[in-house]
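Troubleshooting: if your tokenizer reports a length mismatch, compare your output against this known-good record of 245 residues.
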Amino acid sequence: MKLSIIIPAYNEEKRIGETLDGYTKFFKDKLGKDFEILVILNGCKDDTLSIVKKYDVKFRNIKEAIGKGGAIIEGLKMANGDYIGFVDADNATPPRAFYDLYGKINGNDGIIASRWVNGAKIGKKQPILRRIASRCFNILVRLFFDIRVSDTQCGAKLFRKESVKKVVNKLGITNWGFDIDLLYLMKRNGFKVIEIPTEWNEPGESHLNVKRTSVQMFFSAGRLRLIYSPFKFIVTIYDKVFGDG
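Known-good structure output:
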């Protein structure tokens, strides 16, 4: 199988149908039966599951909420494609933009979509506060981890199976630090990950509270930095004070 696409889903009954309509049709036209879509539901309390069951996709319904990172980790373990990627359930990244990752990964170990490099096509933009928070977070990531990409948090990423399978069991569920953890582990293992401009639209009905999320992102990055430092023992105390990432 050539391609596995993981879609983490938390209470996505209003958006998952449109996403699955677009992705299943597009990739059947492009790859026939040589791809799979895996929807990982975590802690859904709405009708997401019954909607997903209507489609020719694989799924796993995890009843407890394990977060987006936890859902992606489970999907990475299940996936069988030569290339394994993930994309958000909100259809912010259209199928053709994800296919662009597949077409341009070439000999690299990974490729990530970016909303912040020249050539990106942004339709409806994020609210100004989210854009400011995103840029501040990116500065923090560069300082803490020396990951030289402009957009660690864009939801569309793709990796070679042999590369991502090597790091998946080392990943922690670090809330907003998940994407950083994945990219940092790829870097530490000597894998090359490139960044390309993407096509992206701000979805409606976001679950995010910008102020609360910004604080969570900061502490998730701080916790992850401690994990990859000589002061890892502090994480136990850190978790007691701030909670697990």
